[in-house]
Design the sequence.
């Protein structure tokens, strides 16, 4: 039987588009109010804020995150190749802007190790191209805590008119100029993606790609910090293969290791790892995480200052961190052109991490986020701070987990964290003058524990899905051994190729009947299935399109043990020979048989079926090549007196077959060619003579 299809009203797309444009371009007070409340979600939830219920959790989590942010901001400045003050600016502005524009109640937006690394790689490359020495590791200035004390004694000054900076600009000035231009462009891309609703781009970054990318980048981050751990001065490698080159340089210069830095690093890592492990083990008993990083930084700074580790043992220290705010400055347009391409992967990675974390915690705490608004939020978290000497930001998993574990309810906690950073910016920054860089490196390396632990999950991942494990390994290897941007691109392309290969060579099977039922399954996978006499049931578990057409035909011919084209050619050849013998008046055929026996001989022994049922339940769509392929097998098998029946086709496939003329002009044969279940097709085939 054939089910009646519903008649769908044809939509005039032109009128729909015009109606949407009219609605979008109209402006009423109510519409303006809704637009502002959608663009600034804080206007919706802040008036409904339950102060007595939420305030304690928000204040507590805000203080804890603020305390964690300060040492991380100073440490991640090493990754970005910038001064610590710029990391503090970034943390401050990102929290304030996301408070106004974000739709997630829990994510912590600010500096993120992976984003800092991507910024740092672009900054280092442009510094080299501009002629600066990346290995300028001069002794710190004896800073007075003011913002005017920016230029180090060994910083080279260049008149950078070639890139649009007409005044003399030192290394630090040029580095932050590159970082802000890169950040501005990344923010512009994110806002444009929000306007054109291109959030679907994130779908092409699978979990395996993201995990592999993060793990590979973590290896790069770890490698970049080793020289600070042991206090050696080696060239900062750039370009492809940075990880390998850096390790070669480390082993070549290992004899120059600073004993003071090695001892300090060993102590700090032991303390940090022990505290983290204890915190993880007893987190259900602790009301909030231990501020281990802050304690380590305070103690290390005091020891370095009073022990005069820089003067006596040449241990590298952070140097002067100015207080206050530098006057805002528009990012250089010519620098934007230089880094426009680099900003694209930065924008995508920043957005994907933010949205994925937002969705994860929204699902966990039963509320919804708007992915498009998140795109705007993270975009403006990059655009606006770029005018205030800040660099790119993203949501960070570790800090978000800490926020939720300490009672965070809303983004009020982000404002509290920003106030803690502001306190450091205005008053406390100069106190970190004597902080050793090896301590910052220890904080960065210990923070990578989560990403590096992914190596332990490889066997379990392999057990679940071998292809996803291969995607993870390829993405991780490319990100670590080539570069982070190339690694991300390789991961996306390789994962898409895996999907294409899966559809090009999908599973195929001949089905048998489950005894005493109307159900059919793979004859090779299940025991005690009954073969249906005179009927072959073929299943193809993928869409049928141009890329897998040949595989479809080869699999069909192999499993049914019959190639209709070869069989038809063999028969024609045989008939031709018989006619030649008959014309000569020889009633005995070429093989010595009579005419009646020849007629029997024309029916080959290997054809043991009279109907072919194609199970289309796994065929999600057909393209033109797919339709033509089905028409081809229909014709070829018909020449051998074998009927082809289609079962379990979805409406999309049926429509494609109708448009392609599979059922003829008037669709009169549909009832004899199309069935809604395999069993119906089998019963019809059995009833045929």
Sequence:
């Amino acid at each position: 039987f054939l089910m009646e299809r519903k008649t769908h009203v044809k939509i005039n797309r032109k009128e729909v588009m015009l109606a949407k444009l009219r609605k979008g371009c109209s402006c009423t007070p109510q519409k303006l109010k809704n637009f502002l409340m959608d663009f600034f979600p804080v206007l919706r939830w802040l008036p409904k804020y339950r102060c007595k219920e939420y305030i304690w959790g928000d204040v507590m989590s805000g203080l804890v995150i603020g305390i964690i942010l300060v040492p991380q901001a100073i440490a991640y400045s090493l990754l970005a190749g910038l001064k610590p003050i710029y990391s503090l600016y970034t943390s401050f502005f990102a929290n304030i802007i996301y408070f106004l524009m974000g739709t997630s109640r829990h994510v912590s937006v600010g500096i993120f190790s992976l984003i800092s690394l991507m910024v740092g790689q672009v900054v280092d490359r442009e510094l080299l191209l501009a002629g600066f020495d990346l290995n300028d590791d001069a002794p710190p200035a004896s800073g007075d805590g003011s913002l005017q004390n920016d230029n180090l004694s060994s910083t080279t000054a260049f008149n950078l008119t070639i890139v649009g900076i007409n005044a003399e600009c030192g290394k630090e000035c040029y580095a932050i100029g590159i970082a802000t231009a890169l950040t501005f462009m990344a923010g512009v891309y994110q806002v444009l993606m929000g306007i054109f609703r291109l959030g679907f781009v994130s779908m092409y970054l699978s979990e395996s790609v993201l995990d592999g990318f993060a793990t590979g980048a973590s290896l790069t981050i770890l490698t970049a910090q080793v020289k600070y751990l042991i206090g050696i001065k080696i060239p900062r490698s750039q370009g492809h293969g940075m990880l390998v080159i850096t390790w070669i340089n480390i082993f070549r210069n290992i004899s120059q290791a600073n004993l003071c830095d090695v001892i300090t690093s060993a102590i700090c890592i032991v303390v940090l790892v022990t505290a983290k492990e204890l915190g993880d083990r007893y987190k259900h008993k602790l009301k909030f995480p231990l501020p281990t990083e802050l304690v380590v930084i305070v103690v290390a700074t005091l020891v370095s200052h009073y022990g005069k580790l820089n003067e006596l043992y040449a241990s590298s220290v952070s140097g002067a961190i100015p207080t206050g705010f530098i006057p805002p400055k528009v990012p250089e347009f010519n620098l934007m052109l230089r880094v426009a391409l680099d900003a694209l992967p930065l924008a995508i990675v920043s957005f994907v991490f933010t949205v994925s974390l937002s969705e994860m915690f929204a699902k966990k705490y039963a509320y919804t986020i708007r992915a498009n608004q998140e795109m705007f939020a993270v975009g403006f978290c990059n655009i606006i701070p770029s005018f205030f000497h800040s660099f790119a930001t993203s949501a960070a998993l570790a800090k978000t987990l800490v926020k939720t574990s300490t009672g965070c309810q809303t983004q009020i906690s982000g404002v509290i964290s920003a106030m803690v950073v502001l306190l450091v910016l205005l008053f406390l920054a100069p106190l970190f003058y004597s902080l050793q860089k090896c301590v910052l490196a220890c904080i960065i390396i210990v923070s990578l524990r989560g990403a590096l632990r992914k190596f332990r999950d490889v066997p379990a991942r392999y057990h679940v899905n071998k292809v996803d494990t291969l995607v993870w390994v390829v993405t991780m290897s490319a990100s670590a051994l080539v570069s982070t941007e190339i690694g991300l691109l390789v991961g996306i392309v390789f994962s898409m190729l895996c999907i294409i290969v899966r559809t090009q060579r999908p599973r195929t099977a001949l089905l048998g009947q489950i005894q005493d039922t109307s159900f059919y399954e793979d004859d090779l996978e299940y025991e005690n299935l009954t073969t249906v006499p005179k009927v072959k049931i073929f299943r193809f578990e993928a869409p049928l399109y141009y890329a897998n057409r040949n595989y479809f035909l080869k699999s069909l011919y192999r499993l049914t043990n019959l190639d209709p084209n070869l069989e038809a050619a063999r028969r024609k050849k045989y008939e031709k020979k018989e006619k030649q013998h008959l014309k000569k008046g020889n009633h005995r055929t070429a093989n010595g048989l009579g005419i009646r026996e020849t007629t029997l001989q024309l029916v080959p022994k290997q054809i043991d079926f009279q109907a072919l049922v194609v199970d289309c339940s796994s065929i999600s769509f057909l393209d033109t090549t797919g339709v033509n392929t089905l028409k081809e097998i229909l014709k070829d098998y018909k020449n051998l007196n074998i009927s082809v029946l289609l079962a379990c086709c979805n409406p999309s496939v049926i429509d494609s077959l109708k448009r392609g003329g599979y059922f003829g002009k008037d669709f009169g044969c549909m009832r004899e060619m199309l069935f809604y279940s395999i069993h119906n097709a089998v019963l019809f085939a059995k009833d045929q003579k």
Notes: Residues 61 and 406 are 5 Å apart (CA to CA). The first helix runs from residue 13 to 25. The chain is about 60% helix and 5% strand. The chain has a mean pLDDT of 86.
